[in-house]
């Protein structure tokens, strides 16, 4: 069993307008490739759910209701000798903000087909089981 150096939380923001398809909001780094779910570090002064909501507001510019844990994942950093453990939560989007802290760094966009996320990005692969449960 490896030691965990850093804990992360993430959310899959589901849009309310989606009727027949599952529409989720993803973020795209301006200098990077692919689509990611909003994620970030978990500080012990907040619950995991509160931290996931904070990261979703900060990175994707949406607020909503966080549901129960969908999945847990572990991975090693590609650039540091660090192990991460993360927790994924669903988020039902209730408000899209006009301004948010990281809007100049991360772009948000709707991914109407969850398969785009699962098959097309490096970050999404560890979350395939969580996304499948969410569908």
Task: Please describe what this structure looks like.
This is Nudix hydrolase domain-containing protein. Its cofactor is Mg(2+). It comes from Clitoria ternatea (Butterfly pea). The protein has 135 residues and is an alpha+beta fold. It has one domain: Nucleoside Triphosphate Pyrophosphohydrolase, CATH 3.90.79.10. Helices cover 20% and strands 36% of the residues. It is built from three helices and seven strands, in the order E-E-E-H-E-E-E-E-H-H. The strands form two sheets. Strands 1, 3, 4, 5 and 6 form a five-stranded mixed β-sheet that branches. A hairpin with a 6-residue loop joins strand 5 (71-76) and strand 6 (83-96). The longest helix has 13 residues, at 48-60. The chain is globular. It starts with 5 loop residues before the first strand and ends with a helix. Mean pLDDT is 75; it is low at 114-135.
- String of helices and strands: EEEHEEEEHH
CATH topology: Nucleoside Triphosphate Pyrophosphohydrolase
The counted number of beta strands is: 7
Radius of gyration: 14 Å
Number of domains: 1
Briefly note the structural class of the backbone. alpha+beta
SS summary, helix count: 3
CATH superfamily placement: Nucleoside Triphosphate Pyrophosphohydrolase
Look at the structure and give the CATH class: Alpha Beta
Average of per-residue pLDDT values = 75
Helix content: 10-25%
Keywords: Hydrolase, Magnesium, Metal-binding, Protease, Serine protease
Organism: Clitoria ternatea (Butterfly pea)
GO molecular function, one term: metal ion binding
Pfam families: NUDIX
